[in-house]
Hints:
Elements: H1 2-30, E1 46-49, E2 52-55, E3 60-64, E4 72-85, E5 94-102, E6 109-118, E7 121-124, E8 128-132, E9 135-142, E10 145-152, E11 165-174, E12 177-180, H2 188-199, H3 202-205, E13 209-216, E14 222-229, E15 236-248, E16 251-264
Antiparallel strand pairs: 1-2, 3-4, 4-5, 5-6, 6-7, 6-8, 9-10, 10-11, 11-12, 13-14, 14-15, 15-16
Amino acid sequence: MSKIIIAIITIILIAGLGYWIYQSTLEESSTTIPEEGLVVDPLNATYIIEGDEFTLVDGKAEKEIVSGAASKIRINVFDGWSTKGDVNDDDLEDTVVLLTYNAGGSGTFFYVVLAIQKKQGYEGTNAIFIGDRIAPQTTEIRSGEIIVNYADRYPWESFTDQTSVVKSKYLIYESDELKEKQMETLSQETAENLVIENWGGCETNECSDLTVSILDGKDDVWYVQAIYDGMKDDSVKAQKRIATVHYVNGEWKWGSEIVKEYKCQEGRGQQNFSSEFCL
């Protein structure tokens, strides 16, 4: 009887040992070992910013601006700012990451990069510049297109002004490169036609000269400025107006007026453009 018991115990021990070895082998085989040049975490990938390679370590990287100098370029992943989704239609979840770039000055430059997931790890991409001292909002991935939403300033405002203008940058991953999506461009002719259609020309406004300028077209937000000079008015010498213009459903649409300022006739008030009415 004792021999039978010993045999049973031996069988149980051998079976247990075999199961332990099997589980260890299974766990070992399931552990992802990245291929050469790949990493297991987007926070440790290598990204290209303005032509320079930066390899992150736990979301941070440093590089000397000049050899031996105290000032350095510092790269950091913006806290809590990443979005996952498939951007290249390979059924693998890629990661969009926002980076901050500081080179010792007053600016804080924001860039977006991608960590492309391969079967055996992640590979970093080039960076796309978003803006200086902006306020990041959200990021979306729609059908492989990346949409970066953020708040900025009007092009005529300084960095001391609050970020109040919501903008969106559209990005795509194509031919192993992160790129800005090509958007429609507002032409000078279209801008002039919209101004005359909505505000009138010099004949309507009784002025001697009308100058139309396109102030910005960054990230699909356009501003059109019109200056009516030499106005035939007792108090107002010139008037400046700025409005937004958007490309919607295949055509340019007039937006809202956001600036209306006056330059006064001699002795009737301010000689520079201001929102104050002339006397």
